[in-house]
Amino acid sequence: MTSKAAALELVQLSKVYGNVTAVDAINLKIPAGSYCCLLGPSGCGKTSTLRMIAGHESVSSGDIIVGPRNVTDLPPAQRSTAMMFQSYALFPHLSVLDNVAFALKMRGVDKAERHAEARKLLELVDMQAYAARLPPQLSGGQQQRVALARALITSPQILLLDEPLSALDPFLRLRMRTELKRLQRELGISFIHVTHSQDEAMALADIVVLMNAGKIEQQDSPREIFNHPRTEFTAKFIGGHAVISVDGETYAVRNDRLILKRPGDVLGGPSIAGTVSEVEYQGTYVRVAIAADGGADISAQLSEDQYDRANYRIGEKVIASWDPSQASLLKSSRSSVTVRSPEPAI
Fold first, then answer.
1. DSSP-derived secondary structure for 224-285
2. What is the DSSP letter of 295?
């Protein structure tokens, strides 16, 4: 199998179902050879976007550019893309080998040649020993590998993956996540992967595209999007942040950057008072949930040593403070906690 990665560009791309706008004039550029995750809650437009790229949904308006070609009106087989479906969609009556070779059979490739190519791909996904089996005789993880090999046999420039890990148990999901990233690096082609899992997107993606109500909320590297969320939605959906308003401005502060004090302790920055509502041991850290006096809930993430020294208890009054340089200014102040910055010393 030989293929060359292609860049993808979406230009004012929209999808409308009746009176519902599922995708609202989005613009997106994905460099060739990238691993991109379309992330967001159910109904945000990520799957409709993927299906339009694949050619399985018509475009209401806008353009899809793969490499130098406008593929907006081309059928799926002519787009240099391949799609791996969430359900895997394997043919139960065909062997693993014939499932993988099926697309080449439809193109008129002779049996010996298509089987030789299918065996190469089964070896790539470590499934060569199962070539003669039927899909019902395979585990979920094995079926996923077969579906991946089948999608790759047409030598696509862009591989599209629709929630490929959602049907797997947590242990296998972690293993297959590693395998997907390894394959993308080895093949060098672009992967565009739809998921609702923040952890999955952060672990896999070079570029995270967070969608909300049909629009792109933020697109960036996983590290940038976590450390510098630009909107309240991003900070809350990605998780790990407290969203707090200070003097009319809304900020996101990472939970592990919040500093907990007791009333009367010296504070070094803006702060908010509250009551400890829950303490959860998470192995590598302790989560201290706080019902803020402003009515919202925030959480602080403490190391075991920090927690053991302070020994906060449910029902105890605490003060959460932070270094202003560690806070990200957000565009929206909806559903946030309002506090005041400390008065200057006189």
1. HHHHS--SHHHHHHH-SEEEEEETTEEEEEEGGG-EEE-TTS---S-EEEEEEEEEEE-SS-
2. S
* 345 three-state secondary structure: coil
Distance separating alpha carbons of residues 322 and 243, to the nearest angstrom:
12
pLDDT tens per residue, range 169-227: 888 888 888 889 999 999 999 999 999 999 999 999 999 999 999 999 999 999 999 99
Closest CA to 219 of 9, 19, 30, 2: 30
**The model's pTM:** 0.86
The amino acid at 318: V
Q: Strands 190-195 and 207-212, how do they pair?
A: unpaired
Distance between the two ends of the chain, CA-based, in angstroms?
A: 73
CB 153 within 8 A of CB 134: no
> Which residue's structure tokens are 């998470």?
282
Give the DSSP per-residue string, 58-103. --SEEEEEETTEE-TTS-GGGTTEEEE-TT----TTS-HHHHHHHH
Domains of the chain: 8-227 (3.40.50.300), 244-339 (2.40.50.100)
| Residue 104 per-residue DSSP state | H
Give the pLDDT confidence of 227-262 residue by residue, as tens digits: 999 999 999 999 999 998 877 889 999 999 999 999
Angle, CA of 20, 22 and 24, to the nearest 5°: 105
Say if residues 146 and 135 touch (Cβ distance below 8 Å).
yes
CB 160 within 8 A of CB 53: yes
**Cα dihedral across residues 246, 251, 257, 258: positive or negative:** positive
**Radius of gyration of the chain measured on its C-alpha atoms:** 24
d(C-alpha 142, C-alpha 135), whole Å: 9
Residues of the chain with pLDDT under 70: 1-3, 332-346
Give 38's contacts (C-beta < 8 A, 6+ positions apart). Answer: 46, 49, 50, 192, 193, 194, 195, 209, 211
Q: Are 323 and 252 in contact (CB under 8 A)?
A: no
Tokens 């065996």 -> residue: 119
Supply 70's token pair.
Answer: 């406008």
Cα(155)–Cα(112) distance, rounded to whole angstroms?
18
